[in-house]
Amino acid sequence: MSSADDIDHSELVATKAWDSSLFKRLFRYVRPHKPLFFASFAVLLLLFAGELLGTRIWRGAIDGPIKDAAGQADKSPYLSELYLWVGGYLALIVFTTVLRYFETATLTKTGQAIVHDLRSAVFRHIQRLDLGFFDKRPTGSLVTRVTTDIENLSEMFTSGVIVLLFDLIKVVVVLAILFTINVKLALITVATTPILIAVSLSFRGGARRAHREVRARLAKLNGYLQEVLNGIRVVQVFRREERVGQRFDEALREYFIANKKTIFLFALFFPAMSFAVYIIQGAALWAGVRAIVDVNLTYGEFVQFWLLLNMLVRPIRELGERYNILQSAFASAERVFQVLDTKPEVVSPARPRAIAAAGTSPHVVFEDVHFRYVKDTPVLKGVSFEIPPGKTVAVVGATGAGKSTLVNLLLRYYDVSSGRILLDGEDVREVDLESMRSRFGLVLQEDFLFAGTVRDNLVMEREGVTEGSLETALEAAQALDLVERMDGGLDAEVAERGSTFSTGERQLLAMARALAANPDLVILDEATAAVDSATEHKIERATARLLAGRSALVIAHRLSTIRDADEILVMARGEIRERGTHAELLAQDGLYAKLHALQFTGAA
Ligand SMILES: Nc1ncnc2c1ncn2[C@@H]1O[C@H](COP(=O)(O)OP(=O)(O)OP(=O)(O)O)[C@@H](O)[C@H]1O
């Protein structure tokens, strides 16, 4: 987020006015809620019928009594007729008021039910996408897709499609009735409505552009906010608050300016709209009064005409707005489907090859592995090594050498660009992803703890993790006293991202989490953070228990782990430069000896 104009242009998807393939696809989400969808339609239909009936009652209530009273000395017959009309009108009002409740309730419910399904589908899909996808997408933009974009779609179903369709029906029916009342009056009215249609539709284009810009600026604002909140420690320690605040203000200002454009448009639009409506009403008044004087129209007919006219004007007035809702919903639908259409590249094969059942330490082989995250930037350049069953291979090397990448590939977060990784002789791309990963125990430097209880974080809903295995794991990971010290023990609440634990504690808990499922292969990225010597000893003992008898790939930073490893790989710039045991490598007096001297002589 640096320059003022670096908005994500994938946010600015332009769409057609009406995209039937998109609509068909959206309609698939309506299908399970069809009864609700049609109920909304039925309610709207009833309301419309009620409104029409209302105008007819007004006409009858005026013309009937006037006719009855004409030339009569006794006024009582016209009075009783008036009571009848007004009574009927009151009943109608009660009926439509109740319907109005159902109108909002069913329409909103329909929209929300559809949105619920769609949101759940999108979230499930995003979770299954591979890391390559997330590398390319800012989290903020994904959050916007799951929240705002899908909310827009809900509006499409509630105030968009159903209402628009209904408005069309309304216009046709009302126009037809207007012609039955008085053709001349109806013709004059119809002649003046194009002004209103023109104003309504001209607003459409400007509003759409302004609206799209508001959304893009909002996505940028969200992205920046998310980034800052995630990196709040860095912000604070580097005293970046002022600068970050300024950048946020900049993004906020852009958002404000974009919003101002829409405000300006609306400010202009509404008076223009009223002007067009007054013209129509004025024309109707002029022609109507003349028709009454010419005895071509009764007072009651004129009032009914007037009421119907307002019923006609409303949908036309809202035409532009409805059109915009549809447009913005289509744009949102496109963005949402973009995500849904992204297929995960790292998937299980259709016919996975069988691997040994859980309970045996696997044999891992990296065979001339090449890898790049982005085109033309090789990160691994022909890496070959093996982890025999039950053995520990430690990887050391300068930062950026490609150590974590080895882990990413073994876990199949990404697939190799060329070469192979074999698990018990089978290419990892040929075996079932889930059953393979379920045999792995992973401990990361800054392992992720979710909000919830300590127990939830350790069990992670894995089958086979029992109270008993949890206790053993905690003990082996030297984390038992840590948990016992906590208020509530295993049921203590973990703050979001486990931010209340120290790095050492988090690593011990992560080890317990890995141990609890008794993994066959351990992948350990040792924490580099300096810890006090008591914790250091705990971590050493926990590491020893974690690795004992298991195949293991360790990105090693601790001398104890490195010394005990069966083989050490020294990596530099994506290649293995040296390999051997601790003693062998020291004797070589090469890169490892230098690294060792630099890192450990003081500590050893
Ligand atoms: N998701 C990614 N997209 C693009 N490049 C990446 C990605 N992850 C890592 N890299 C690049 O790949 C190279 C190797 O990174 P890797 O994380 O494997 O190094 P490392 O040896 O584990 O370093 P460290 O000890 O600092 O963790 C680095 O140059 C890094 O910039």
UniProtKB/TrEMBL annotation:
It comes from the Bacteria. One of its GO terms (cellular component) is plasma membrane. Keywords: ATP-binding, Cell membrane, Membrane, Nucleotide-binding, Transmembrane, Transmembrane helix, Transport. It is a multi-pass membrane protein. Its main location: membrane. It is found in: Cell membrane. SMART domains: AAA. One of its GO terms (molecular function) is ABC-type transporter activity. Pfam families: ABC_membrane, ABC_tran. Residues 38-328 form the ABC transmembrane type-1 domain. PANTHER family: ATP-BINDING CASSETTE SUB-FAMILY B, ATP-BINDING CASSETTE SUB-FAMILY B MEMBER 6. This is Putative ABC transporter ATP-binding protein.
